């Protein structure tokens, strides 16, 4: 969140951020008015408190001097001041609570290098990798959802039967390939000096608020034990939408030492989001689903190092695609498409050649976002109380947080199924993954199970 002092002293900068990020439903003037009333009440309360202290200090002297009538007047005045002060403090506390809630609705300030734009069409492509030496592909690449069903790697029908739309079974060699991807990603990032964290899956509301998922994105998350009034409080639990939430909040309310920084954690987790059904044709297949696996990279750094670390984090996430030799591009996200909490964000998009639904390279295909690499500066740190002490004798200051997926597993799986597809309908296992699959080089699929897999003419 933004500090109230920053909002108070730089209202036009905040107003500009609200407009450039396309945030609606926020009345900055009302927030400034609440802040002004709160400060007036605090000042009035300080004055009453000082007067009460002065009156109280005279009561003993008056009694000692035998001035009982004046002493009683001082006692009566002290009680009046106490009552007035209690009333003002209650009103100030109420305003402060309103102010804190309102500040949570204000977006982070975009870094000066972020391109201005309204949506994804205004994002700036920074560079592409892997397109100079593309492998030979079939004349017609079969989309992953058809190929996955043909080889019995993906089962969407049974996933919907068990859990509803947006869920699936990953089966046989498909499941084995996904496990291989997860272990490969974790190993790559261990080489980059990331420390593994296996986080809890349910997270509380304080944690969701600390990273910015609440209150703005409550409708996108899955709750556990929701109240009948549909409000949330610190007793509620949520299925994590990303491991960013528990890992960032590991140190919530703590002070780290300068010697601790930078902290680099990686966490594998299942993730739960109400995403399916939002983007038309993308609802088909394993691209936009409610439950998916991801490896998340979270960094805690000194403020002066955060933008150098952002570039390093981008390279660390992209190295997975470099080693798998999957073509991809990096986008510098514009203000209208970068998100509520980020100060600067890059998206890494892998190329999947099986569908011609977006503007891909010359031969079609589409781009799939596999990582958002973000610098939040001190925005999350203020919400979560994440601080560090530059020197042991110095006061604590807010650190900067960064994160990025390293990577989103299903979409990398989709890219492999389509980019490493062969003319005969098999899939070549990328060389770096073969050791994780017992040396297997090609995925040929499995025979389907059940009467539904038998041709109609073969049924009894």
Mind sketching the topology for me?
Elements (H helix, E strand, L loop, with lengths): L3 H6 L1 H10 L7 H37 L3 H36 L20 E6 L14 H7 L3 E2 H8 L5 E2 L1 H20 L3 E3 L4 E3 H7 L10 E3 L12 E3 L4 H5 L6 E3 L5 E10 L18 E11 L4 H19 L3 E5 L11 E9 L13 E10 L3 H6 L2 E3 L7 E2 L1 E9 H11 L7 E2 L13 E2 L17
Parallel strand pairs: 4-9, 8-14
Antiparallel strand pairs: 1-11, 2-3, 5-7, 6-7, 9-10, 10-16, 11-12, 12-13, 13-16, 14-15, 17-18
Helix pairs in contact: 3-4, 7-10, 7-12
Outline the structure in words.
- This is Serine--tRNA ligase.
- Keywords: Aminoacyl-tRNA synthetase, ATP-binding, Cytoplasm, Ligase, Nucleotide-binding, Protein biosynthesis.
- Its EC number is 6.1.1.11.
- With 460 residues, the protein is of the alpha+beta class.
- It folds into 2 domains: 4-103, Helix Hairpins, CATH 1.10.287.40; 120-443, Bira Bifunctional Protein, Domain 2 (BirA Bifunctional Protein, domain 2).
- It is 37% helix and 19% strand.
- It is built from 12 helices and 18 strands.
- It has an 8-stranded mixed sheet. A 3-stranded antiparallel sheet has the order 5-7-6. Strands 8-14-15 form a 3-stranded mixed sheet, with no helix packed on it.
- Helix 7 (172-191) crosses helix 10 (306-324).
- The longest helix is centred in the N-terminal third of the chain and has 37 residues, at 28-64.
- Residues 276-281 and 456-460 have low confidence and may be disordered.
